[in-house]
Design brief:
Helices cover 71% and strands 7% of the residues. The chain is built from three helices and two strands. A hairpin with a 5-residue loop joins strand 1 (49-51) and strand 2. It is mainly alpha-helical. It has one domain. It has a two-stranded antiparallel ribbon with strand order 1-2. It is elongated and about 65 Å long.
Length: 91
């Protein structure tokens, strides 16, 4: 898989924080925010390598569907964060 970019590493960290938040504190909304943002970062910049007909390695382009899904997840994380702020202000 080669080298991971900084945004993929940060996405993995955010996703693991979300998983720990879900398992330890049982707060689903907080975990969903962390997981959505982390998975969006991972999807947006994770690159795979392939081999061409002559046996040389090349970097495959990121599919548009994966880019749209990543943008949706990051947008969802922002919306969920605003919902969390709204709920916190109600208390």
């Amino acid at each position: 898989m080669g080298k991971l970019s900084i945004s993929v590493i940060i996405g993995i960290l955010f996703s693991s924080v979300g998983l720990v938040a879900l398992l330890v504190s049982r707060e689903a909304l907080t975990a969903a925010i962390w997981l959505s943002f982390g998975n969006g970062l991972i999807l947006s910049d994770l690159r795979f390598k392939g081999k061409d007909a002559s046996g040389g390695e090349y970097e495959k382009p990121i599919p548009k569907a994966r880019t749209y899904t990543a943008l949706f997840l990051i947008g969802l994380a922002i919306l969920l964060l605003m919902l969390q702020i709204y709920f916190d202000m109600q208390e």
